[in-house]
Each structure stands twice: as C-alpha cells, then as structure tokens.
Amino acid sequence: MAKDTTPAPRKGANGLKNFAVWTMLIMLIIGLGGFGITSFGGGVTKVGSVGGRAISTDDYARALRGEMDAFSKQFGAPLTTEQATALGIDRRALGALVNETALDGEAARVGVSVGDARLAAQLAAIPAFQDAAGKFDRAIYTDALQRNGLNSGDFEQKLRDSLGRGLLQGAVAGGIVAPKSVVDALHAYVAERRGFSMLRLTQADLAALPVLPDDAALTTYYTDNIARFTRPEAKRITYAALLPETLAPQMPVDEAKLTEYYNSRIGEFVSPEKRIVEQLVYPDEAAATAAKARLDAGATFETLVADRGLTLDVIDLGDVSEADLGAAGPGVFALTEPGIVGPLQSPVGPAIYRMNAILPAQNITLDEVRADLSKDLQIDSARRAIADRVEELDDLIAAGASLEDLAKEKGLTLATVDYAATAPGDQGILGYAAFRQAADAAEQGVTSDMIVLEDGGLVALRLDEIVPATPIPFAEARADVEAAWLADATAKALAARAAEIRSAVESGTSLGSFGIVDVTPGIARDGQIAGGPPGLLPAIFEMASGDVRVIDEAGFVAVARLDAITPAPAEDAAAVAIKTAIGAQLQQAIAADAFDAFTGAVASAAGIQLDQNAINAVHVQLP
Asked: Given CA atoms 482, 488, 489, 490 in this order, what sign does their dihedral have?
C-alpha cells in the first residue's frame, strides 16, 4: 500500500510560531553547505503545490535535511532518510512547507507584503551577511548565496514571503486576550495551599509481625503470583570482549613513571596537620575584643555570627594548615582540642577563630600505595593498547571471523549472557550502557562490529536466540517468594492498622496519640513531601477540611488529616505576578491554536496536490 503523505497538522511546540525567520533562512539556506545540498536539477522541480503555488524539490530537500539534522543532534547520531520517514520527520517537513506555501498564497490574495525598506533592514540585521564591524557587506552576502547555488532574487523573495507571513500571523493572532475568568480559575487552582498532619506507619506500629506460612501456603502464593517469579523474555547473546581490567595485569609498570605519577598526586598522600576553622572578622581590635568578652560571658559563637549579619557557611575556611592562616596560625594551632581563640590578626582585620576539628598530618609513602597506583597505570596502558586494536579486530569481523575465532586467535574473552531490556543490568558486561544499547539493536545470527565501551574496552556480540519468558522453579525462587509474601502481608497489616487509626481519629481521638505526626502547614499542588508517594498530594487536594484519609501506596502507608485550606490570594504582588504569567501562557496557547486553525483552513481551501514520485526521488538523493 502506498504511504499516505498528506501532511499532518503541525502545531508549534513552543506556542506561537515565530515568522520573523531570518534565523530559519540562514539555517535552511546558508547552512546548506554543511548538508551538501544545493540543487536537485533534472526534470522534476517540485514535489507538489498549494493553491497553484509550487513547493520545489530543493525547498523540500532543505526542509527535510534541516529537520533530520535537528533530530540527529538530539539522538547523538546521524539519522538516515529511512529512519526519518519511519519517525514521520518527512511528514513534519512537508507539512511545514505546505502551511508556509498556503500562507504565502493567502498573503498575496489579501495584499499583505513588506516594502523594500523593511526587507533591506532585515537583510542588514542578519549576522551572516555582516563584516567584522557588524555592518551589512554586499560582497559577503553575494558570496554566501553563490556558494550555495542561490541568487539574491530568490533569497530576497523567500525573506519577503517570511516577513509577510509574520504580518499575517500578527493580524490573525495579535488581538487575542486570555479570558479573565479562566486566568482567575487557573490561579485559584495553582496558588491554593493545603495544611495537613500525617502519621506514617511502619512495622513498629504493628502489635505483631506476620509469620511465614507453611510450604503449602507459600506454594499457593507462588502459583497465584507466578508473573512475579518469572524470568522475562531475553536475548541469548554470545560476546567476545577485551576489557582493560582483564588486560591490565599483563601490562608492565615502569618505575620512573610510577614515581612521576605518585608525585603528580602528592597532595593526596602527603599533607601537614590541618584544622577545620571558622573565621569571624571585625572592623577593628576594639570590636573584636568586645565580642570575645561576650563569648567569655556566655554568648554563643552562632550569636556573634548572626549579629554580624553573616551565616556559618560564609565564615567557614574549611580545612587549613598553620601556614594558610598566616599570623593567626600559631594561635589557632596552639589549641589541642576544638575551641575558640582570638582576637588574632587576619589578612582582612582582627578576627575570632573557632576550631572545630584536628586533622592529623598525613605521610603515605609510595610503597604504601604502590599496588593501587600501579593498577591505575596498568589500566591506562591497557586502554591505550585496546584502542590500537579496534581497526584490526573490525577488519577481522568484516573478513568473516567469528566471535569464537576472535577468542581463540586474538585473546578475547568469550561468554554468553541472557539479556532482557526490562531487567536490571548492573553486573558484568550488562553494566555497560553501550553493550545494552547494542544488544537492543542486535539481529539474530549477525555479528556486530567492535563496540567501544565506557571504560575503553571493546566487545562484539551476536544474538543467538530468543529465550521465552520462563517461570523460576519454586525451590530456586523460594527466598524471593518468602520476601514477597512477608512484604504483602506486612502491607495488608499496616493498611488494616491505618484503617483502625482513621476510625479512631474520626471519632475524636488525637492523631498524635498513635505516634509522631508530621505537620505540613501549607503546601501547593506542585510541592514535594520528603519520602511521600506520587499520590499523596493529589489525595490531600481532594479532601475537605477536617477529612481523614488512609494513604496506601507501594511501600507507604499513612493516615492524613487535612487541617486547613488556604485559598489563593487575590490581590497581592505574588498573585498579580502569577496571574500575569498564566495570562501570557494562556494567550500564547490560544493564539497558536487560532493561527494553526487559520493555517489549516487556508491550506485546505487552497487545495493541496503532492507528487509522491517526486518526494521519493528527493529521499533517494539525500546524502
């Protein structure tokens, strides 16, 4: 069946589309040198038309290539034309051109256009056409167009059309205002606050913990929940790997390089005695002396810091040596335990110092860290040795060598692993993201090229077979079955206890009489409660004042009482700011929808004709 190429309606992802599009023109035309597209030539010159206005093959190629390039940047790899069409990128590019062509026709019909002065000003504002002084340079302009097979007449017409579409957009969407009633309603929803109390239940709240049942009951539980004890469908993959940690023990260690490496990290191994110190500076000696007197009389160091308008993080010097403290060093280092000393002279004035901890001097010799540093150097050498073998191993695979051949003749490690995309993969070869990505894409019986792993290792793989989902035998799964039964039984017991507490609270018993209650005085819908499940706040915002509810989600059971509902403030500065932001976003969204609807109606009324053969020809010729 032929592919449907009718362009899908295109909605601006960021709201109202921007048709002051010199930026777009630069990307799609001046930037084409990077895409290798100038002109398709030949007898086919258009891929379709809207209302009699042609959509050229060149314009479609540029638009499609631009969309593909944007997607390639997101994926981190070049996108082929086949992948682009599978993702609908061709429809997106063609749809945009259909809409632009329809708008050009509508602008011409109603007489919307820009004058030469506006066009000249827009050209002069394009950085790609400016000289080093930021002024428009016609020679640069002409050269840029010629290098891409364009002429000034065509380019200027495209720019004029784009500016005309901008005028048309302004006429359609410029007068739209967000309804005040909707803005007020959204503000009331967003800015409302809820205060609640919550008692979270744990195993300690149960009178007795669940006890494991007999084997018969466990077996029944296993059977009833067999999906939880079933290995997922997996790909059985054979791989040949060359990993730095495997090759490292074979790498020699040069003593001179080891000493150099040790010396380059000497600060980690040899350091003088240090102190963790805070420094509170005063403007003069008298003020510092008075502050020390207050300390001696019982004031806290924190009080002195607050009186100076400072915070502890601001005055924290971290761990410092005696030399780091300059003139104050001897006085601070005379302390043999945490304490306060001063006033002492600092580079910025007299100061009081609080010493919080003593860090002993460190002198770790090369011999003490020889094994660890040698391993680092061996791993590094192994990575470089492996990198030198990528081309050799790829050539062998291309020549038909099997993974078994690579293991036998080239020293790679051969192994088999069952890989399931839905199962955790943090062990061994499955811990490498590059391996998992290649396993996802593997085709049965096909040996991959060498894959560079995150640590510099190499692996090639082959999908041997698909292993169907298989129940884990009860004997093998017993520990997991017991743990799951206990978890389920505990959750049910906690939910039952929570229901009892809810009934008691609704009858007048204090929630606090059942344990420690967390009180949240006021929180918005988009707030966060530490350790709370996703459904907690939505439940709180469904409750009426005074309601008590059990919150029961996976691993979380609590009893919550809604204490207060604080309506959104109506007239304060915060309310005005929020309403302004809501109004701007709503206005933008409505304007975008209105312009999309207008564009779709114009295109439909004008009539769309597409040439699938011409479109396919563009796809074939794209690099």
From this structure: positive
DSSP SS3 for 572:
coil
Using an 8 Å Cβ cutoff, are 192 and 527 in contact? Answer: no
- Cβ contact 441:428 at 8 Å: no
Residue 227 token pair: 């999906």
Longest Cα separation, the chain: 98
Dist. CA 554–CA 546, nearest whole Å: 25
Q: CB of 166 within 8 A of CB of 19? A: yes
pLDDT tens string 573-585: 888 888 888 888 8
> Nearest-CA neighbor of 123 among 30, 17, 18?
30
Q: Report which DSSP code applies to 578.
A: H
Please report, for residues 196, 205, 550, 552, 554, the alpha-carbon distance to residue 501 in angstroms, rounded to integers and kept in the order given: 16, 11, 9, 13, 19
Contacts of 396 (CB under 8 A, 6+ apart): 405, 406, 410
What would the pLDDT profile of 554-611 be if each residue is shown by its tens digit?
Answer: 889 999 999 999 998 877 788 888 888 888 888 888 888 888 888 888 888 889 998 8
Instruction: Quote the Cα angle for 134-140-141, to 5°.
Output: 95
Exposure on the CB side of residue 187, measured as CA atoms within 13 A? 24
Q: What is the DSSP letter of 212?
A: -
Rounded Cα–Cα distance for residues 243 and 459 (Å):
8
What are the distances in angstroms from CA 531 to CA 176, 282, 556, 558?
43, 43, 9, 11
Measure the CA–CA gap between 217 and 308, rounded to whole angstroms: 69
Question: Which of these, 132, 154, 219, lies nearest to 478 by C-alpha position?
Answer: 219
pLDDT in tens, 191-222: 899 999 999 999 999 999 999 999 999 999 99
Q: pLDDT exceeding 90 applies to what percent of the chain? A: 41
Dump the DSSP string for 288-326.
HHHHHHHHHTT--HHHHHHHTT--HHHHEEEEEETGGGG
The per-residue DSSP string of 11-41 comes to --TTSS----THHHHIIIIITHHHHT-S---
159 neighbors 25 (Cβ within 8 angstroms): yes
DSSP state of 234: E
The tokens describing 316, both together, are 């924290």
Residue 333 neighbours by CB distance under 10 Å? 21
> Which letter, b or e, does each residue of 396-426 get, where b requires 16 or more Cβ atoms within 10 Å of its Cβ?
bbeeebbbebbbeeeebeeeebebbeeeebe
Q: Around Cβ 361, how many Cβ atoms within 10 Å? A: 10
Asked if 403 contacts 463 with a C-beta cutoff of 8 angstroms, the reply is no
Beta-carbon contacts of 227 under 8 Å, excluding residues fewer than 6 positions away, are none
Whole-number Å distance between alpha carbons of 212 and 309: 60
Residues in the chain: 623
User: Which tens digit of pLDDT belongs to each residue from 231-279?
Assistant: 999 999 999 999 998 889 989 998 999 999 999 988 888 888 889 999 9
Checking 421-425 for CB contacts under 8 A at 24+ apart, the result is 422/232, 423/231, 423/232, 423/234
Angle CA(541)–CA(543)–CA(547) in degrees, nearest 5?
Answer: 145
Among residues 330, 238, 356, 340, the alpha carbon closest in space to that of 298 is found at: 340
> DSSP assignment of 48-63, as one string?
EEETTEEEEHHHHHHH
